[in-house]
Amino acid sequence: MQPHIDPPVAKKAAGLQRRLPGESRSVNKVGRGGTQDPFGRHEPTFELAIDAVPSEVSKVRHQSKTWLKRSCHMPCERVESVALIVSELLTNAVLHGAGGRRVFFRTSVPEPGILRLEIDSSTPTTPPAPQTADDLDESGRGLFLVDVLVGELGGQWGFSPDGAVAWCHIAMHNEVLSGSA
User: Fold this and answer.
1) What angle do CA 85, 1, 124 make, to 5 degrees?
2) Which of 1, 38, 84, 86 could serve as 151's disulfide partner, Cβ 3.0–4.6 Å?
3) How many CA atoms lie within 13 A of 53 on its CB side?
């Protein structure tokens, strides 16, 4: 399974509320709640803006796990896999993207039963691809793990055309998304 390029994500990412540099808190809740669809149903969302430092990743992973369990009612076994995906994509953005600035994390449920993750490093680059690492390498497996986990969950993932936003669609339960291999 190879990552996909998601043209609409650039427009969606532009809608993220960005925090100004130098804000006092390292993890800022941009928003928690959601929007209503045309039928009046509530679409849960969860957004954070974090400083681009590795220590922030575990905080986001923990908060996203709580949100997935409580707001989305995602089964625990799927939550653990999604949390690892979040962790790997955020770590990639922090280490290879944000250039010491902020990283924006957003989850939403754009349609019933579908989770969308977005990680915006605000750093345009060539969209990366999963690589294989040698046995003794200490890093270089993150996108490979994302690819395997998203595949096991029957989802899709990729990057915006400018490489600044990683995105992922995953079924909330055990369904396979159409177009997934």
Assistant:
1) 60
2) 1
3) 7
pLDDT one-digit tens code per residue, 28-46: 344 445 555 444 545 678 8
Q: Which residue has the tokens 């754009």?
A: 110
Selection from 47, 9, 4 nearest residue 124 by Cα: 9
Q: What is the pLDDT of residues 161-174, one digit of tens each?
A: 998 999 999 998 87
Predicted TM-score (pTM) of this structure: 0.73
Structure tokens at 124: 């345009």
Rounded to a whole number of angstroms, the distance between the first and last alpha carbons of the chain is 7
Per-residue pLDDT of 76-116, as tens digits, reads 999 999 999 999 999 989 988 766 689 999 999 888 889 99
Q: How far is Cα 172 from Cα 170, in angstroms, rounded to an integer?
A: 6
CA angle 94, 119, 86 (to 5 degrees): 80
Report the SS3 class of residue 62: helix
The secondary structure of residue 79, as a DSSP letter, is: H
Q: CA-to-CA distance for 143 and 120, rounded, in angstroms?
A: 15
**Residue 97: which of 138, 60, 52 has the closest Cα?**
52
